[in-house]
Amino acid sequence: MKIRVKEVLKKLESDHVPTLSHKELFLATTDLLPVTDEKKTWDSWTFVGFWVADCFNLNTFLIASSMITAGLNWWQPLLCVVIGYSMVGPFIVLNARPEAVWGLVFPAVCRTTFGVFGTFWPIFTRATIACVWWGSQCWLGGQCVHVLIRAIWPSFTSVKNTMPASTGTSTDYVISFIIFWLLSLPTIWVPIHKLRWYLFAKAIVGPLAGLTLLGWSVKRAGGAGPIFSQPATLKGSKLAWQMVTSIGDCFGNLVTLIVNAPDFASRAKNPSASVWSQLITMPLGFSITSFLGIVICSSSAVQWGQPIWNVIKIMEAMLDGAEPSRRAGLAFIAMGFIYVTLLKNVVGNSIAAGCDFTALFPRYLSIRRGGYIAAIVGICMAYLIMMIFNKNPWLLYKSPQTLTKFLAANGIFLACIAGPMISDYWLVRKGHVRINDLYVADKKGWYWYMAGMNWRGYLGMLCGFAINLPGFISTIHPSIKVSQGAMKLYYLLWLTGPGVSGLVYYLACLLSPPPGMSKIFEEVNESAGEPRVDQIVQTNGALMSAAATMSALSTAPEIEAGPQRSEREVRSSNDIADFAIRNTGDVIKRSVTR
Q1: What is the pLDDT at residue 505?
Q2: What is the Cα–Cα distance from 342 to 201, expressed in whole angstroms?
Q3: What are the TM regions of this chain, as residue ranges (predicted)?
Q4: CB 411 within 8 A of CB 494
Q5: Which of 19, 83, 526, 571 has CA atoms 20 to 30 A from the CA of 582?
Q6: Cα angle for residues 247, 248, 252 (degrees, 5° grid)
Q7: Which stretches in the chain have pLDDT values below 70?
């Protein structure tokens, strides 16, 4: 029985060099090693397609429309999103640079800042948030499925409701959620380097669905005039700080992609492919999508007397008493949003969680397996985390206030991880790295620090978190009052989070310089030409195999001619043995330099 269990466990192991020790395996599985050239398939146009595809998603619509319900007029939210997303772009490019240059994924490059064994908390944090987002995005996608089914079968809403009133939902929505969750599973199977074609399709489907809904909404509202004539309900300092908060919401929407950027940048054909294509396309695409959300939300105020912030609820309202042609149009739009949300969930959540789970449980998990675990954990984790914000996980999209609370919490954790990472590469080591030291537990390695952990990284992260903690607590629990100054610092989280954490990390490095600190910026791998741990292990395996072969050949009796063998066959066999012995050294040499 024990033998069978071991055999099963052996078959379940992830792809890795067979003879790695447990400690080496924790640091150097195939998914954590630098990406090979054949998997670097993303050029500049791939990144353009990626951001065009990513910006057309329901979250972007909802964030923009929530600014209308907060009391802004149409142009004020547009100004907020242009500023907010334009400020996110540099963070993404700066944090993705080392990965684009060296082909590293987030769990590996994170070791430069937090140490080879100090990455547990950053990785765990990112994995947790990715799982929460997975569950919430599935609920949002499930609402799109509900629109689609209702458009085809209007009686779907008459399904007997078995859910308690306290849950805030009904059985038909739960069924839709389960359908979307099942649709999500095949998308996880696609490897990162093959996602480009699905993203190109999303870049077409997303804008088509969004523009169709926009045109329809403007027509139903009687044109653009009534939409753009609606005034803001806030004035003075309240208006100013609401706009600051709205800029922060844009940052919170993309803060996950600031730390997720390494996973995609590692697939870049060359480092420049991930620079201008992201700096320009990302803010432009999100600003356009946000504008669509602003107009669609503003048009709902004209149609129904008050703004409806949730685009899906607008579609649900349009289905009330709808004729067949309107139902067909809404079914088409819903299918587009379903596809968009499926890809959004994979790109933004399952890949990030997959990379992180690979780093946490390297022997048995790969990026693909980690993605499937995120699909399961996400449902459970979403419920636990969302308890902080409201009673049930699906209530994240119940009101704009709940959504903005979650976005702020999202930002406070991840921004304080990105700050020290950016500071380490650009200000402390100035592009100097030792790739091989990322995969060994060597006390002489650059990233060993103190017992494998870098206290400077944790100091920076904690300081960035601490300065925003009072405002965070008051936002989550309004009964706890803090000073106006603390709240205003929290509203500026998009600057104070990465700014304070990165600055503290830099100052700590000045006081206690880490290995590899440089005065001149130069992107160079100081370990270039040295064998990496997986190559060394493979070489040792080749040496052992070669030694066994030579031992067997040297002790074997020389083959002689006999009745069943011709002299020519004998000479051929002995020549092969001599050739193997003479060339074993060359085989070993090639395995080292490979």
Answers
A1: 97
A2: 12
A3: 48-68, 74-94, 101-121, 173-192, 198-218, 239-259, 279-304, 325-342, 370-390, 402-422, 455-477, 489-508
A4: yes
A5: 19
A6: 125
A7: 1-3, 5-24, 166, 381-410, 536-594
What pLDDT does residue 114 have? 96
Amino acid at 17: V
Helices (H), 454-532: 455-466, 469-476, 484-491, 493-511
Question: Which among 377, 369, 380, 371 is positioned nearest to 350, based on CA atoms?
Answer: 371
Tokens of 333: 């739009």
In tens, the pLDDT along 31-79 reads 788 988 888 888 998 898 888 878 888 888 888 888 888 888 889 999 9
Give pLDDT, residue 577: 44
- In DSSP terms, 453 is beta-bridged to 450
pLDDT at 592: 41
Place of tokens 């199977």: 189
- Tell me which amino acid residue 472 is: F
Main-chain dihedrals φ then ψ at residue 582, nearest 5 degrees:
-65, -30
Residue 305 CB contacts under 8 Å (≥ 6 apart), including other chains: none
Which residues, including other chains, have CB under 8 Å from residue 466's CB and lie 6 or more apart? none
What is the predicted pLDDT for the residue at 428? Answer: 96
Q: State residue 82's pLDDT score.
A: 93
Lookup result for tokens 């693909």: 368
The structure tokens listed for 345 are: 């969930």
Cβ-based neighbour number of residue 575 at 10 Å: 10
The tokens describing 263, both together, are: 């996973």
Joined together, the tokens standing for residue 573 give: 């066999």
Neighbouring C-beta atoms of residue 272, cutoff 10 Å? 12
Q: 290 with 280: CB under 8 angstroms?
A: no
Q: Name the β-bridge partners of 524.
A: 432
Cα 70 → chain centroid: 29
CA dihedral 518, 524, 527, 532 (to 10 degrees): 130
**Helix (H) or strand (E) segment spanning residue 228:** helix 225-228
CB count within 10 Å of CB 372 equals: 19
Q: Which DSSP state fits 161?
A: P
Q: Residue 314, class by beta-carbon neighbours within 10 Å (0-12 exposed, 13-18 middle, 19+ buried)?
A: buried
- 524: enclosing H helix or E strand: strand 524-525
CA dihedral 206, 211, 213, 219 (to 10 degrees): 180
pTM of the predicted structure, to 2 decimals = 0.81
Please state, as a whole number, how many other Cβ atoms lie within 10 Å of the Cβ of residue 333: 22
Residue 432 host element (H or E) = strand 432-433
- Taken in order of first residue, the domains within the chain and their CATH numbers are 1-525 (1.10.4160.10)
| 583-586 CB contacts, 8 Å cutoff, 24+ apart | 584/546, 584/549, 584/550
In angstroms, rounded to a whole number, what is the distance separating the alpha carbons of residues 7 and 1? Answer: 10
Tokens representing residue 574 in the block: 């002995």
Coil vs helix vs strand at 445 = coil
CB-based contacts of 75, cutoff 8 Å, min separation 6: none
Cβ-based burial of 47 (10 A; exposed 0-12, middle 13-18, buried ≥19): buried
